Automatic annotation (TrEMBL):
InterPro entries: LysR-like_Sec_metab, LysR_HTH_N, LysR_subst-bd, WH-like_DNA-bd_sf, WH_DNA-bd_sf
Keyword terms of this UniProt record: DNA-binding, Transcription, Transcription regulation
SUPFAM superfamilies in the cross-refs: Periplasmic binding protein-like II, Winged helix' DNA-binding domain
Pfam families in UniProt: HTH_1 (PF00126), LysR_substrate (PF03466)
Family annotation (CDD domains): PBP2_CysL_like
Family recorded in the similarity comment: Belongs to the LysR transcriptional regulatory family.
Span of domain HTH lysR-type: 1-58
Protein name as annotated: Transcriptional regulator, LysR family
The keyword Hydrolase appears for this protein: no
Length: 300
């Protein structure tokens, strides 16, 4: 039930007038009448009576008035305690993110986190997987969001999401309208690949190896460190590539790229949050890590 319905009912009971209650709540009388009807429908009882002296409560209305006051009071206490808790989450946090999630997902997560905890100051650093993990280990970032395999060493990490990768090609002949290609056709094409050290490249090579495709057989014509550069090169017809779905939503919507699957080759990109135990002592770091494990993290 919407707490505002109870607040409206309390206002009517205290003022004994729809017009005065509407003025107090800054709503129209018809809107207030509709709210009372919703309450009466919900409880299947009549709550108020209109008389020459104004609005009076029925016996059921008096029972609801008593409970409504307690519920609203408890709810307002809860709101205050939550506000106090949010205010207690404050401070600075440096988040490192590998290229794809850093460019296409984590910024939205930080925005939502900042709305929830406005006293925090979050700095985002974006690089490839190898760079971000190195900065995490040397203390340049507090928490890392990375693509690829679960990081090893003395880092604590857990998988928070996964993303399907697809082959991208220019959305024109011979690719337009197609949804898949064979492994043999894929290997025969000029391929534009991410650079060594990229989490996306790591997962691509792993998935291809599991499907029995040796990376030495790939016809790699170019290596680029930028997802946008790869997409531009593919759109220009210089080759095909493999990209995570997070990075190509706009191009698929605008129909500048075609997305295809390699037959019999699942391409799944895993996304992890990682940190050093000794670096996660602050309330803001703990809150951010917990937030990134929830569905409300709001990847763009």
């Amino acid at each position: 039930m919407n707490i505002n319905l109870l607040k409206s009912f309390i206002a009517i009971a205290e003022t004994q007038s729809l017009s005065r209650a509407a003025e107090r709540l800054f709503v129209t009388q018809p809107a207030l009448s509709q709210q009372i009807k919703q309450l009466e429908t919900h409880f299947s009882v009549q709550l108020i009576e209109r008389t020459n002296r104004g609005i009076v409560l029925t016996e059921a209305g008096r029972i609801l008035f008593d409970y409504a006051n307690r519920i609203v009071s408890t709810y307002e206490d809860l709101e205050k305690n939550m506000d106090d808790f949010r205010a207690s989450i404050s401070g600075n946090l440096t988040v490192g993110a590998s290229s794809i999630v850093g460019g296409y997902a984590v910024p939205c997560s930080i925005f939502i986190f900042k709305e929830k905890y406005p006293e925090t100051n979050i700095k985002l650093k974006v690089g490839n997987r190898r760079q971000i993990l190195e900065e995490l280990r040397n203390g340049a970032v507090d928490v890392a969001i990375i693509e690829g395999e679960k990081p090893d060493g003395n880092l604590i990490s857990s998988e928070i999401a996964s993303d399907e990768m697809v082959v991208i090609a220019p959305n024109r002949r011979p690719w337009q309208g197609r949804t898949s290609l064979s492994p043999e056709e894929f290997m025969s094409q000029p391929i534009i690949m991410r650079e060594e050290g990229s989490g996306t490249r790591q997962m691509i090579e792993k998935c291809l190896k599991q499907a029995g495709i040796d990376k030495s057989r790939l016809h790699i014509v170019m290596e680029l460190s930028s997802a946008d550069s790869i997409k531009a090169a593919v759109e220009a017809g210089h080759g095909i590539s493999i990209m995570p779905g997070l990075a190509i939503r706009k191009e698929l919507y605008n129909k500048t790229l075609a997305a295809l699957k390699i037959e019999g080759v699942p391409l799944i990109q895993k996304i992890h949050v990682a940190y050093k135990r000794e670096k996660v002592q602050s309330s803001v770091a703990k809150a951010f890590i917990k937030f990134m494990h929830t569905p409300n993290r709001g990847f763009c």
